[in-house]
Amino acid sequence: MNNSFYIAWRYLQFHWGKTLLLILSISLVIFIPLGLNHLVNKGSEDLMARAEKTPLLVGAPGSETELSLSSLYFNKPKNQPVMFREVEKIKEQQLGKPIPLNIEYQVKEQPIVGTTPDYFEFRDLSLAEGRKMAILGECVLGAEAARKLNAQVGSSIISSPSGAFDVAGSFPLKMNIVGILEETGTSDDEAVFTDIKTSWVISGKAHGHQDLQQVENDSLLLAKDETQAVASPAVLSYTEITPENINSFHFHGDPGDYPVNAIIVEPKDRKSALMLRGRYENEQSSVQMLVPEKVISELVGTMISVRDLLILAGVIIGIACLAILAFVFALSIKLRKAELQTMKHIGASRNFIGSVLGLEIGLVLLSAIIVSGILTLIMGNFGIPLIEKLIS
């Protein structure tokens, strides 16, 4: 057996180009259905796990899938925002805890999530260092966001403009990092969390001004006397909130009219959840309430249907490829007729020659299975974020 193995191994090693081509071909034939099945199954589990932990969502009418994905994974929202008074309305009903989400803005590629401290408790997020945000202009980073932004507690980050033509709307805000979260393996790792009011400052709903009584340049004022000063548009709005200017920040209009992209509702119990859903279904309002688990389940069902079709196609193609490979092996043996005759002449038995050929095929198949297994593991580790990006 050792002699057969040695000869088979030396043959494959000598014809390394053909051997490598066969291994790659067979490994891909095995990997495509196996890897696709593993990827979709793992992705489905992760998608459903986060959806199952989110009982109810409130948002503007439109695509339920878009609302669910933007709320669960902090994708750029495509649905219109709802008014903050919807949060107050849910709170008044005392059937559940509303958690607003404002996810309109980013720091580079990392989403800014304007919310309340209740979100950390709801998602069971714990701090690796620092503390939670307490005042305007403070933020807490997810573990991955901190790595990508190369940020630490005590440093600052600046929000990105929402668009190249956003002239009169949002403006970059310098935020102080006061905490970094433990890694969770979810989309929370990628987020920059701020208080909901800080996200409204970014959107331009609130701003601060220079101390008008201390302004020396009279061209910045429309009027000034001993009791009051009236600012001109030239007085700069702050883009950083500090202890010195925080008292100058003020909100314009009714906070109930301010936007939130979605509201997570954590009902007190199953009965409260049913009552909330019933009230929203009966009301003719500009908002909708949905169950993320149901929406994501339908999305996963579509993914599985597509997966099954692709696997079926892959299996059919695989059978055809294996038939071709069998033909290649048979042709190779025929082309090696002189070599095999030489082995017979020097005393090799028919069984010995058969074992050499069998070991050659076995080594190629074993190597292909190992390669396909490695590819499947790589797909499992790095393919899930790809699925999340594709569905978003």
Automatic annotation (TrEMBL):
Which keywords describe this protein according to UniProt?
Membrane, Transmembrane, Transmembrane helix
InterPro entries xrefs: ABC-4/HrtB_transporter, MacB_PCD
Q: Supply the Pfam families for this chain.
A: MacB_PCD
Keyword Transmembrane helix carried by entry = yes
Give the MacB-like periplasmic core domain ranges: 85-216
What's the domain of life for this entry? Answer: Bacteria
Q: Which residues cross the membrane?
A: 20-40, 309-332, 352-379
Q: Matching PANTHER family, A to Z?
A: ABC TRANSPORTER PERMEASE, ABC TRANSPORTER, MEMBRANE PROTEIN
Name of this chain's protein = ABC transporter permease
Look up and give the organism this protein is from.
Christiangramia oceanisediminis
